[in-house]
Amino acid sequence: MARTQRIDAIVVGGGPAGSAMGWSLAKRGINVAIVERAVFPREKVCGDFVEPAGLRIIETMGCTQALDLGKRLPITRNRVYYEARLPYHGEIPYYDGAHGMPPHGYIIPRDQLDTVLLQNAEDAGATVFRGTSAKALEREGGANILTAKQGKEELRIEAPVVVGADGVQSMVAKAKDLRRTDRRHIGASQRVYLDNLDIEEGEATIWFDEDQIPGYGWMFPMNGGRANMGIGLLTETCDRFDMSVQQCFRDAVERLRFRHPGCRNARVASKPLGGAVHMYGGVTRNHFAGGILVGDAGSFVDPMTGEGITQGMESSILGARSVAAALEAGQFGQDQFASFEHDFRAYFDPAMRYLVLLAQLLRNRHFHESVFTATRKGFEKAQVESSFGEISGTSFGGLNVQPLAMTGQLLWSLADHFLRGGAAALTDALRGRGFTANGAVEDLLAWQRGWRASTADDLPWHMSWLGDIAKAAGELGPSFLMDENPRLRGPFAFVEGTS
User: Fold this and answer.
1) Rounded to whole angstroms, how far apart are CA atoms 398 and 433?
2) Which of 98, 255, 262, 477 sits between 20 and 30 A of 334, alpha carbons compared?
């Protein structure tokens, strides 16, 4: 017979989101248990990159020393390839050290990061069940009853609150009929560790290849000539165009050796691992009677980059307030946890909704030629115009997303490009040279080719895509005028400011 434990809150999943939730609740004096399937340390498919906002949270939670952050390689520069071209090479323009964030990121392998964060939650007072698989979740008489297996022993844990922090295959989400399956918002990735590299210190590399749009590759360096290298693709595109993530990954390794001078002798030092992420564009209701979903289980992942470590921890810090309020009130119905929905929408939506719109625009693979050219020119502009990189560059990993300012920069750049191109074409015509296919005209022709190919290939999908763009644009609302992203000040400041 299973032994039963009765506590205040169960957190299913001990990754960054689950550990941050366990730490946040334990610090409030709440009797919380974290149920984690794996025995740490364990590998996790991830780029391992922790951006400045994530490092700020890690410092607040008191994990800086345990992670030896002072001995790690600060990431301050970026190298961007478009196939063999290098349109951007320099400082990451939006890492400015504002609001208590360091002006850099770190590469922290997940076997190290997750181990430290989970231990930190336990040190704060959370009970941690390692190597324990959650098998079933039921709700009876206002209590959540989790059945789990630890070795040969069956556990039964009862609590009025349950938090699903158990990733893309979330058992909690499935039990509450909230698991996300929309492949428009699911990314697939594969990564390895590379050794024998000769890379400039603190310089990350990302790349875009025309045959792998929408998607990108990354290489994030660590000390000792080692790096995390991988690719991410949209699963919808893989399905529609029969693209193999594994083959794209193999191609990426060989291309990296060819294009990056520091990677010519790169050696694959680990087994390739694959995984998936649920991005914010697919976010739906994340609360239910008796609890909430956080982290990847709740789709708290950047829709442009696929980053989710920081977003997962942020969602838990926001969600801990709703859990604590429910326990204090003794009310655990679905309406009670709607406060989490209000909080995360107020915190994430202002920037994420704009990034969702950009991601929707990039979804149509038939426009790969136009997308490839336009985004490359954006990086080229950022190389010579720092203000462009500081503002519009935030669409790919920056924190202070300002939709109005970004749109203004992009529209002005497009207008300038086409006005110059049109003037050049008119001048050539007046001089008797006839029609010339200059850059602006070529861009228009490329867009036309994409439109024709898309409508000819699958007109219903094309119309649905246009509808998705219109819907994403319509959901921007007042956030379009935002001049400071709430995420800039961080989740702790947000919770304190809205208490």
Assistant:
1) 45
2) 477
For residues 439 and 209, give the distance between their C-alpha atoms in angstroms, rounded to a whole number: 20
Contact status, residue 366 vs residue 457, Cβ threshold 8 Å: yes
CB 408 within 8 A of CB 359: no
The confidence score (pLDDT) of residue 8 equals 97
CATH of domain 3-72+108-180+283-332: 3.50.50.60
Instruction: Give the three-class secondary structure for 458.
Output: coil
CA–CA dist 387, 96 (Å, integer)? 13
3-class DSSP state of 216:
strand
Q: Token pair of 468, please? A: 């998705």
- How far is the C-alpha of 329 from the C-alpha of 264, rounded, in Å? 61
Backbone angles phi, psi at 247, to 5 degrees: -70, -40
Residue 77 · residue 200 · CB < 8 Å = yes
Decide: residue 86, CB within 10 A, 0-12 exposed, 13-18 middle, 19+ buried: middle
- Least-confidence region, from 280-294, 340-354, 416-430, 465-479: 416-430
- CA atoms 452, 457, 463, 465: torsion sign: negative
**Cα 429 → chain centroid:** 48
DSSP conformational letter for 64: T
**DSSP classification of residue 479:** G
Domain boundaries, the chain: 3-72+108-180+283-332, 183-278, 359-488
pLDDT in tens, 262-275: 999 999 999 999 99
H/E element, 411: helix 403-430
The domain covering 183-278 belongs, at the CATH homologous superfamily level, to: D-Amino Acid Oxidase, subunit A, domain 2 (3.30.9.10)
pLDDT band at 199 (very low <50, low <70, confident <90, very high): confident
Residue pLDDT, tens place only, 2-46: 677 899 999 999 999 999 999 999 999 999 999 999 999 998 889
